[in-house]
């Protein structure tokens, strides 16, 4: 039977669906011949010459022993099929190689066809039951036609397994990437994670833009730009996507149809959320998406929506907590309009000082990202206990007598108690728990001479040690009922002089660095 005729008989083996005009670049199918007879290699190469499957030619590799075959399978990626002799350097060299490939290399994808010139030496039934092979042939069976059929069937099986494995890996990347998205605390960070994950799922570097439209069902079609990568990176600096941008009408098309738009090279993922937001992700893959790609992206879209809803609720809760903190601070400062700006300045300097200390490597176990996120806002609660201080004492223009001093000092314990009761309702660190530390400890002195508990050194919470410096500095710099404002030089001189006595020296050093930097910048701009 002629080569052409035998190939024609087996055309049913090949998927003849129309391929896209621009397809993912694919290398030749890699086949490995493992046999200790050079003639077998030559005959096999001759028989498979010119064969293609799905437009891809065959690349034939040769090994002449089981060990050499193992090394090639270990070192050469993407071998689809191994035509393997049973008897080589030993009577069971081929069988041992099968075990090593499946167990040592954990390669379950490569198709293995055993060929033997001595069928009785390794009985077919026993071999098929005991070894993970895909076919078992006597060399005399493998005519040109049968060899062609075996190769094409094996390539088809390998292709299906690779597609399944790619889906599995893609889903694994989705789960891993989604977990990261759930941990993100800002929209910009979220956008960056989404764009990076799309590239990972498709196994390419993606050029893309992620936009959000707020308020599903509204007349507004304003698209806020959250992030952009690759050739679109410049768009990340824009607040909104311009209506004249070529991507804009494509996103509108996806919004109108309420579904993703796959029109290579312009792909738009449409991602609605339960919080009445619509995400539009435009990206340009280097080749048309396969059905597997589209399925994976649709799964990822649902994960993105869930992650965003989680982020949205997190941000709303954070804002609610911040609003509660501000309300408590406003309540404490309600009777004194002069101190409203004081708490804002304390928040500013506290956050900066804490960040500077983290950069310097101070107290690494305490200066965690969560602590740095919370301490600025928490600091505005430092004097919340003054809500219980009588006006006669709070606004006295002169020096307090001993009794009044004791009344005034109670605000630290009262503030700590108020905030501690509320903080118990929130698990872990919160604005309230750190605020309680600050309220109760910002009048303690590093040398143990402060109040209300005469704590010393690191017995005083770090948050309170930071606010202690900031609070005194701001009080010195601004007018109070009992004093005129001090100069910057005198205020800083006092802070330096009290380092190691009233204040933690590490806090003082970081604070002075921040003050020096800010005032130097203001002088330069002037």
UniProtKB/TrEMBL annotation:
CDD domains: HDc. SUPFAM superfamilies: CheY-like, HD-domain/PDEase-like. Residues 317-526 form the HD-GYP domain. Coiled coil: none annotated. GO terms for molecular function: phosphoric diester hydrolase activity. Pfam families: DUF3369, HD_5. It comes from the Bacteria. Keywords: Phosphoprotein. The modification 4-aspartylphosphate is found at residue 85. This is Phosphodiesterase. GO terms for biological process: phosphorelay signal transduction system. Residues 30-154 form the Response regulatory domain. InterPro entries: CheY-like_superfamily, Cyclic_di-GMP/3'3'-cGAMP_PDE, DUF3369, HD/PDEase_dom, HD_GYP_dom, Sig_transdc_resp-reg_receiver.
